[in-house]
Amino acid sequence: MKKAIQIVLGLGIIALAFVIYKQVMTPLEFRAERERREKVVIERLKNIREAQRAFKKVHMRYTSSFDTLINFVLNDSLEYEKIIGSEDDSAAVAKGLVRREKFMIAAIDTAFGAKKLTHEEIKQLPFIPFSNNEKFIMGAGQVNTAADVMVPVFEVKAPYKTFLGDLDRQELLNLLDERKAMEKYKGLKVGALDQATNDVGNWE
Questions:
Q1: How many angstroms separate the most distant Cα atoms in the chain?
Q2: What is the C-alpha end-to-end distance of the chain, expressed in Å?
Q3: What's the mean pLDDT when you consider all of the chain?
Q4: CB 126 within 8 A of CB 160
């Protein structure tokens, strides 16, 4: 009988230790994995932002369509201008030795700066990493600024539940409640449709 009680107590201690371990480690593991995934999602949001900015240079607006955005990056070009000679040299200007030349560069080669994306990476832009092929929520429009000027805007969003949904449920609910209490978007996003934000991400 005594031995049986000792076994039960031993099992109880092991179970209690496991519960305490889970209570301590689960939030830490959730946070670490959340931060790891956020970095990947943010990187894709940045790429979408750069693609939108390149699109705007050509069309003077943003687009709410990923198909349109991807087609632009893969098939369109941006116009650039270079100056031959120095405009500060008045003699050269007077002699017509200074001129401007326009040239085209494929959008895929310039939209992302020094970073080069493959065709496949560009085709993956609509999809939220770590989700079940769910797409970013993207919109575009115009807003009137305080200076009474209409400016184009866009917004791209990735709800936490789409890329953290397979992690600990209670920790995810805690995160969503925390964001709600702070009156912040429950996820990652760049830009806004109701105000001119200069395309800032909510992680910046």
A1: 111
A2: 64
A3: 86
A4: no
- Tokens at 89, concatenated: 């040299």
The two tokens of residue 47 are 């790429």
- In angstroms, rounded to a whole number, what is the distance separating the alpha carbons of residues 43 and 110? 17
Contact 63, 140 (CB under 8 A): yes
Q: What pTM was estimated for this model as a whole?
A: 0.81
- Per-residue pLDDT of 80-126, as tens digits, reads 766 665 655 565 555 555 566 676 788 899 889 888 899 999 999 99
Q: Would you say 122 and 108 are in contact if contact means Cβ atoms under 8 Å apart?
A: yes
Higher pLDDT, 93 or 127: 127
Q: Which residue has the higher pLDDT, 127 or 17?
A: 127
Name the β-bridge partners of 102: 81
Structure tokens at 59: 């069309």
- Token pair listed for 109: 């080669």
Secondary structure of residue 175 in the 3-state scheme:
helix
State the DSSP H helix or E strand holding residue 144, giving kind and residue range, or none if neither: strand 137-144
51 and 69 Cβ atoms separated by less than 8 Å: yes
How many whole angstroms separate alpha carbon 58 and alpha carbon 76?
9
pLDDT for the residue 113: 85
Average pLDDT over residues 124-138: 97
Measure the CA–CA gap between 119 and 113, rounded to whole angstroms. 16
What mean pLDDT comes out for the span 141-159? 93
Tokens 């209670």 correspond to what residue? 170
Angle at 38 between CA 129 and CA 155, to 5 degrees: 75
